[in-house]
Amino acid sequence: MNSKNHYDVIVIGAGPAGLTAGIYLSRARLKTLIVNEGIVGGQLVLTHEIANYPGVESISGYQLANIMKKQAMSFGCDIKSNVSIQQIELEGELKNLMLSDGNTFSSESMILTPGGRSRTLGVTGEDNFKGKGISYCATCDGDFFTGKEIVVVGGGNSALEEAVSLTKYATKVTIVHQFEHFQAFEHAVTEAKKNPKIHFKMGSTITSFHGSENLENVDLKNLKTGETQNFKTDGVFIFIGYVPNTEFLKGKINLNQWGEMVIKADMSTNIEGVFAAGDSTAKKYRQVTTAVGDGTVAALAVSNYLHELKAKQQQLITI
Ligand SMILES: Cc1cc2nc3c(=O)[nH]c(=O)nc-3n(C[C@H](O)[C@H](O)[C@H](O)COP(=O)(O)OP(=O)(O)OC[C@H]3O[C@@H](n4cnc5c(N)ncnc54)[C@H](O)[C@@H]3O)c2cc1C
Asked: What CATH architecture applies to the domain 3-118+242-318?
């Protein structure tokens, strides 16, 4: 391995968590490489407008991602995007990476920030209307549906809690759930049921989305009778689960039953020198601000880890 391909830190993922880590690490004069599967920005680039990032009243996700990228590069951070990981070795003193383009890299430490994705219904029209009436995040998009009538899909705690929170904006929220009973805590069900703005379509599912530019209506299928009805709506929020992008880490690092990376308060994992940050870790709230916060903590913890590692190595040389 030539020294050109050896880094102090390799960060996997260039979403807000990874880019923030890149900014802090490069600014601390640590030789840093960020490797990203798609285009830089992660879920930010799927976000039409970010209106809850402190200090910025309103900005497109794409723009915010590009500012973060430029900021990291201005401090000397290397970024490789649109590449996939062929092989990753986390154990041992040196961490190793082989990419699909044949390049290999090594590092003293790694920060894993592969993020995640919302589980989708996978039905006709869903891809077309993402961000044009279909949303997977109430905190992010609820405000855009002020005074509108919307649908919430799902029957777990997230769906019910988010449905209640969306009644701050929407005039009517219809919860569509495939079963006759909810899979949520009793208090979440009670809160939803006592809210006069919330209506229910149990034993039903959306089979397709329709509209011209924006979503206008959906096909709702009653799973008992098989009947389908067309249902007019201004928006649909889907809360049927979340999938962390950690498939490539299975068997290599401690993951919980949902595939989320298990971390300590300083973002360290069960493997020495390997840290994790952002949406792919085990946590409750997933936002740009929380990802940025995690990325900061992970970068500072890595700086400290490398500092201590170098001190130990110096001590050994002196002895
Ligand atoms: C439609 C939508 C709207 C949203 N709106 C808002 C909002 O208004 N405000 C807000 O605060 N939050 C919003 N969010 C949530 C916010 O975008 C996420 O919480 C945040 O992006 C998480 O950052 P992250 O860096 O942890 O992960 P991500 O943003 O998911 O980035 C992870 C990156 O890692 C890459 N990656 C994955 N696997 C690999 C691999 N094996 N090798 C290399 N790279 C890999 C991915 O390609 C991606 O670029 C929204 C999310 C969505 C989907």
From this structure: 3-Layer(bba) Sandwich (3.50)
Q: Report yes or no: 135 and 240 within 8 Å, Cβ to Cβ.
A: no
Burial group, residue 300, by CB count within 10 angstroms (0-12, 13-18, 19+): middle
Residues 50-58, mean pLDDT to the nearest whole number: 93
Q: Output the CA torsion 281→67→26→3 (10° steps).
A: 90
Q: Where are the CATH 3.50.50.60 domain residues in the chain? A: 3-118+242-318, 134-238
87-141: pLDDT as tens digits: 999 999 999 999 998 999 999 999 999 999 989 999 999 999 999 999 998 888 9
C-alpha 217 to ligand 1 mean position (Å):
28
CA-to-CA separations, 241 to 72, 154, 180, 187, in angstroms, rounded: 32, 9, 18, 20
Task: Using the mean position of ligand 1's atoms as its centre, give its distance from the Cα of residue 41 in Å.
Answer: 7
What is the Cα–Cα distance from 306 to 312, expressed in whole angstroms?
A: 10
pTM for this predicted structure: 0.84
| pLDDT over 80 at 1, yes or no | no
Q: Which atom of ligand 1 is nearest to the CA of 52?
A: 9
Question: How many Cβ atoms sit within 10 Å of the Cβ of residue 116?
Answer: 21
29, pLDDT greater than 60 = yes
User: What pLDDT is stored for residue 318 in this prediction?
Assistant: 76
pLDDT digits (tens, 9 = 90+) for 156-168: 988 998 999 999 9
Ligand 1 pocket residues where CB is under 6 Å: 12-18, 35-38, 42-44, 46-47, 50, 52, 85, 113-116, 136-137, 140, 245, 248, 278-279, 286-289, 291
Residues 47 and 66: beta-carbon distance below 8 Å: no
- Domain 134-238 is in which class? alpha beta
**Would you state the structure tokens that stand for residue 233, as one six-digit string?**
């709506």
Which whole-number Å values give the CA distances from 70 to 14, 28, 58, in the listed order?
12, 16, 19
